[in-house]
Design goal:
Elements lengths: L14 H5 L13 H27 L3 H24 L4 H26 L3 H21 L7 H26 L12 H31 L5 H29 L1
């Protein structure tokens, strides 16, 4: 019997993720909340340790090494994410490498921003964890309720932002720039705030879907998949926090 499903804006946590999985049989250990939390912490630690490498290279003045590690993390993390997105059963094998690659990427990007805006990295980290804690409290206490309307709104907004990113990239190849939308103006900062908000709401939807997986008796490997998926949402949230802070520093 398939599990009950809910849609989510997180591309790694969609409506078909649990819906296509069979229930765990009697006597077979299934997905648990504790197991998912433990794996999420492990991935976070791996990411943070990996981020120290490009950060240390920047401290020693090796900018070329930072650029190389950042690109390696960006492309490697993207490939790993795509594989796990289409094959959730690969999560136990690729979740940790993904976290390490994203650590290289975030460490490199953070070091580059830090060179221009001293103290911005620790501010972005603090804000990301602060928002994560606030969202978790709000979700657990029922201050934020994930309804169908809420879910549909976040999904639509997330795909709208994705299309915006793609359009910006494509137009760039034809020398049409949308940099005015990223400028440190009230419009640019407003757009950045909206994107930060949507990224944060994707974290809430991840909490909700994880709860559904646990309640529905998803297979044990889905702990890795859900931990990986939550990491995807947090990485996006951190990057948008970093960009928002950079815009405010430029004013």
């Amino acid at each position: 019997m398939p599990l009950p499903v809910r849609r989510t804006g997180n591309p790694m946590l969609n409506a078909r993720t649990f819906g296509s999985l069979p229930r765990v049989g009697i006597g077979v250990e299934g997905m648990t909340l504790k197991g998912t939390i433990d794996k999420s912490f492990l991935l976070l630690i791996v990411l943070m340790v990996a981020a120290l490498w490009p950060w240390s290279q920047m401290a020693s003045g090796d900018v070329q090494a930072v650029s190389t590690l950042t690109l390696l993390g960006a492309f490697g993390g993207f490939i790993a994410a795509m594989i796990v997105g289409f094959r959730p059963a690969a999560a136990p094998y690729l979740a940790v490498p993904y976290a390490a690659l994203e650590g290289l990427f975030l460490g490199g990007i953070s070091a580059i921003f830090e060179q221009r805006y001293h103290g911005i990295a620790i501010q972005a980290v603090g804000l990301t964890f602060g928002v994560l804690a606030a969202l978790l409290i709000a979700y657990r206490t029922g201050l934020i309720r994930v309804t169908e309307q809420f879910r549909a709104m976040v999904v639509a907004a997330t795909f709208g932002i994705l299309l915006f990113y793609v359009a910006t990239l494509i137009l760039g190849f034809f020398h049409f720039s949308l940099q005015a939308l990223y400028a440190p103006t009230p419009l640019g900062i407003g757009i950045s705030l909206v994107i930060v908000g949507i990224a944060a709401l994707n974290v809430v939807l991840a909490f909700d879907l994880i709860d559904r997986g646990v309640a529905g008796g998803a297979p044990k490997f889905m702990e890795w998949y859900c931990a990986f998926s939550l990491m995807v949402a947090l990485v996006w949230l951190y990057l948008e926090m970093l960009r928002l802070l950079a815009l405010t520093r430029q004013r």
